Amino acid sequence: MSLPDGSSTTPEAPLTLVLFDCDGTLVDSQHMIVAAMHDAHGVMGLAVPERGRLLSVVGLSLPEAFTVLAQGDAAYPVAQMAEAYRSAFMRLRDAQPPEPMFPGAREVLAALRARDDVVLGMVTGKARRGVARVLEAQDMDGWFTTIQTADDAPSKPHPAMVQQAMMEVGIGPARTVVVGDTSYDMAMARAAGAAALGVSWGYHATDELWHAGAQRVVERFHDVPAAVADLLASASGARAGGPGCANC
User: Which of 7, 28, 85, 122 sees the fewest Cβ atoms within 10 Å?
Assistant: First the structure.
């Protein structure tokens, strides 16, 4: 029996749920995010953190992201900053071309969604409205069977997005893989009992992904299907009492 590695399947093959993060995993939105952050801080008259610090909170919901940036400062205007950022991002988004997809993303997603043993989903800190605009811009409406957003669940790394996605499609954690670029994605996956697959082209360093619980980290989008298959095979071997993977 095979999984999302391109090999043949049988009608009895169990379904696999592959949940993708959006920003930093599927689309490269860093320039727009940083520009909106600069704009929001300027509107509120606050000093702008360095670029790496700004990108480190990508993946969190806006209130959680600005809570992290506040660094414990009770006077930091979290709610106002979230609204200022939201307004700036929407204005910039309407004036610029859509965020580009990372190389190989569209081809891999198209191949996975064509399989009858794979269900695609999305788990993202974006609002549902923002996800809809990305899918429309990339002509991918209907590609994801389940979409969980910041409007639907607590911020990553809380496992609710993954749990809700699994419940919606009726697939358990043993057959679910989360693909993401941040430590929040990895921690969310592990907390939900799903496999955690990190990607190296996003906004967190690979050592952060490993530290947060990544079981694999890939360097190219075209490596995602084989890594998904390997993770599920390792999990299956471990449940059967086989050697599994010592670091999984």
Answer: 7
